[in-house]
Amino acid sequence: MNLGGVVVAAGSGERFGGPKALVEVGGVPMWRLAADLLESAGAAPVVVVGDVPGGIPGGRRRRDSVAAGVAALPDDVAWVLVHDAARPLATTALARRVAGRLLEGDVDAVVPVIPVRDTLKRVEGGRVVETADRTGLAAVQTPQGFRRAALAAAQAADDRDASDDAALVERHGGVVATVPGDPANLKVTYPEDLALVEALR
Ligand code: CTP
Ligand code: MG
User: Fold this and answer.
1) Can you give the pTM of this predicted structure?
2) What is the pLDDT of residues 36-90, one digit of tens each?
3) Sign (positive/negative) of CA torsion 183, 187, 192, 196?
4) CATH classification of 2-111+140-200 is 3.90.550.10, yes or no?
5) Residue 130 — left, alpha, or beta (φ > 0 → left; ψ -120 to 50 → alpha)?
6) Could you tell me which residues are beta bridge partners of residue 109?
7) Which helix (H) or strand (E) holds 154?
8) Which of 14, 23, 52, 62 to mutate to test the pocket of ligand 1 (most atoms within 8 A of CB)?
9) Partners of 121 in the β-ladder
């Protein structure tokens, strides 16, 4: 029962101002850092989705890119780690934590989470309209781990978009477990995030 990896490195990087997978952190392109990370946690092979050397074509939405990557894995891969190329600071310890929990074999997916520390408010037109109750709320990161059959079934079940793959599995009735995430595992979303990432590296 093999563990494979999918790095999602496609997308237009609208908020960043252009595609970001080829952007370098510490002199190494982010897509390669992501692929090396999954390999360091025992994933083989690792498929990279996006317009990068050796990559396969991505899709319009993130979920389409993930589906393309999973479809490209060999049939004997039963467990999959999915990771954003845009998270260059994810550590091997984090990826191993996700893989280790996944391979216990009793859940459909595993996500790293960070409890929300700030107060959350709903804002419209520059004014606060509501203060949300943050009890039980967590921010979710990648790498995420999946039982391949559960992910494939969830992908096939509907075509609605979701901001991560675990959401598809939840919607389809799957069991999604959590492991502690890492506050330093930032996603490069806006251009100013690069300076933060370089400072933390
Ligand atoms: N991604 C992908 N295919 C897409 C959209 C996103 O492979 N169609 C990947 C990105 O490369 C990134 C990760 O999913 O590593 C997280 O997405 P995000 O940070 O939102 O990247 P973009 O969608 O490219 O950026 P934006 O939402 O600002 O356009
Ligand atoms: Mg996006």
Assistant:
1) 0.96
2) 999 999 999 999 999 999 999 999 999 999 999 999 999 999 999 999 999 999 9
3) positive
4) yes
5) beta
6) 146, 176
7) helix 148-157
8) 62
9) 131
